[in-house]
Amino acid sequence: MSKSALHRGVGVALWRQIGDEIRRGIGTGLADENGRLPPEAELAARFGVNRHTVRAAIAALVHEGVLRSEQGRGTYVRRQKRLTYPIGARTRFSTGLEGQARDRQIELLDHAREPANATVAAALGLEPAEEVIRLEMRGLADDIPVSRSTAWFRAAQFPEIADYFARTHSITQALALSGIKDYRRASTTIEARHADDTDTRDLRLSPGAIVLVARSLNVDSNDKPIQYSQTRFSADRVELTVQG
Amino acid sequence: MSKSALHRGVGVALWRQIGDEIRRGIGTGLADENGRLPPEAELAARFGVNRHTVRAAIAALVHEGVLRSEQGRGTYVRRQKRLTYPIGARTRFSTGLEGQARDRQIELLDHAREPANATVAAALGLEPAEEVIRLEMRGLADDIPVSRSTAWFRAAQFPEIADYFARTHSITQALALSGIKDYRRASTTIEARHADDTDTRDLRLSPGAIVLVARSLNVDSNDKPIQYSQTRFSADRVELTVQG
DNA sequence: TCTAGTTGTCTAGATCAATAGACAAATTTG
DNA sequence: CAAATTTGTCTATTGATCTAGACAACTAGA
User: Smaller CB count within 10 Å for chain A: N or C?
Assistant: First the structure.
């Protein structure tokens, strides 16, 4: 059925070629109507390799979040549809994804207090090199990384923001603990580019994958900037919708 | 300078990634004005790998015919320009490439006497399953494979064609020994496709390379078909020109 | 001729890739 | 419950890939 054969000895591992073939085959009849793949033994026979080699390919796709294996049952395509991430003045990460994933969470990877660079200072309306708090976060849906974001806050105004976020795992609640009752998204710009090394690591992407980059500014009820952030999404797993 | 970094642990060997990078870098300033590449040690430092890994990449490109290494001097880009192969009523492989390569030759890889398939029988105007002589040949220019061709002749008319060709390494002379004083190319069709496994082996191509396929019919001075052949060229090394 | 620079060859060890086989663990079906 | 199916884990072996270091062979230039 598949025209392309595997190439040995050309510097591309068989498990990688098989993984690419499976990823391509999803949507073109490789999986059945329930999203179930043929058993490993059958795939191994079809590709003419050992079952362990197929398992290596599947393991890579499971790690990427494309497949899900269940012992005794089979291997399934994980999510046919992308997450739809709404972008609007009053949307929050926590509320926007309701119903699209069973389990959602934001991890705090790192945080620091440091002088603002030119871009951040301009966005937040700070003096040059005024101190900011920087948070490095990662969003997961059903344990698959979907976003990787960096957020900056004016240090003088939000000295405890990192602690608050670590405690609540929510920007909205961390801001509330800092005395911000309400805020809105003033602007968002969106671009797309190839994943760099940081992206492939943090979002578990393959080299060559595409990421969406959203830069947004949140302001308080007096339109004063309080948060500037840059978020990278896996374009395979997420689509953005801008709300009027 | 180079934006793309190497990716480890993704199922693509480093030597392969480096080889692709070098092939791409040719023409964009990687080689100097004499076509000389930076020394292996410098490339190794630039890519952040061991010198042996760079050597593996270069060895693959030398085998492909893209590069040429000279001990003590350096590594050079082999041929910036493609061979131009003329296609016309009276052109011969031996005469067409004059001056474009120092050394030209045609190897006889295999030959057989067998019943003609439908395509060959139709082209040569034979009875169904009439016997033909099939020759498998490879053309080299400066020791780089540039073409791989299969030719069919009516066995009853040219029983000794394989011997004659093996002796003379020339279709024109083999036909002359068979009593054909003159012949011309009646028609040629050209198509392009991706290299299959046979092509990558015989023409020393990378998987994914492109081949040009030319099918042509030679007829004698009475317009009677005498030879049908199919030739595959490496699209990286050859271009075809059709002469009015 | 001597020296510096460059490619070629060899040895050795560490890790990755692929094969092979056996059996455990979980699920579904009869 | 029993059997069949399927994924998970383990051991072992072979070859490919990558690193490291040393030195030979060849070329070009001082």
Answer: C
Whole-angstrom distance, CA of residue A216 vs CA of residue A191? 12
Question: Model confidence at B91, in pLDDT bands (50, 70, 90)?
Answer: low
Which is it for strands B238-242 and B83-87: parallel, antiparallel or unpaired? Answer: parallel
Pair (B218, B118) in one structural domain: yes
Distance A63 CA to D8 C1' (A): 16
**Total domains, chain A:** 2
Q: Kindly list the residues from chain A whose CB atom is less than 8 angstroms away from the CB atom of residue B8.
A: none
Residue A219 has pLDDT above 80, yes or no: yes
A4 belongs to a structural domain:
no
Reported ipTM: the value is 0.69
Pick the residue from chain A with its C-alpha nearest to B204: A10
Quote the CA–CA distance of A12 and B115 in Å, as a whole number. Answer: 40
Whether residue A183 contacts residue A226, with contact meaning beta carbons closer than 8 Å, is answered with yes
Q: What is the mean pLDDT of chain B?
A: 85
- What range defines the domain where residue B20 resides? 14-77
- List C-alpha distances in Å: B115 to B86, B93, B110, B127: 32, 27, 16, 10
Statement to judge: residues A100 and A164 lie in one domain: yes
Which residue among A7, A11, A207 sits closest to B15, beta carbon to beta carbon? A11
A-chain CB neighbours of B15 within 8 Å are 11
Of A10, A60, A207, the CB nearest to B207: A10
How many angstroms separate the CA atoms of B171 and B158, rounded? 12
**Whether B90 and B145 share a structural domain:** yes
A-chain residues near B55 (CB < 8 A)? none
Measure in Å the smallest separation between the Cα of B68 and chain A Cα atoms. Answer: 20
Nucleotides of C under 7 A from a protein CB: 5-11, 16-21, 25-28
Q: Are residues B123 and B233 in the same domain?
A: yes
CB contact under 8 A, A200 and B7: yes
pLDDT digits (tens, 9 = 90+) for B39-54: 999 999 999 999 999 9
Residues B112 and B204 placed together within one structural domain of the fold: yes
Give residue-wise pLDDT tens across range B179-238. 998 888 887 787 777 778 788 888 888 766 778 888 888 988 888 999 999 999 888 777
Q: State whether A133 and A231 are in the same domain.
A: yes
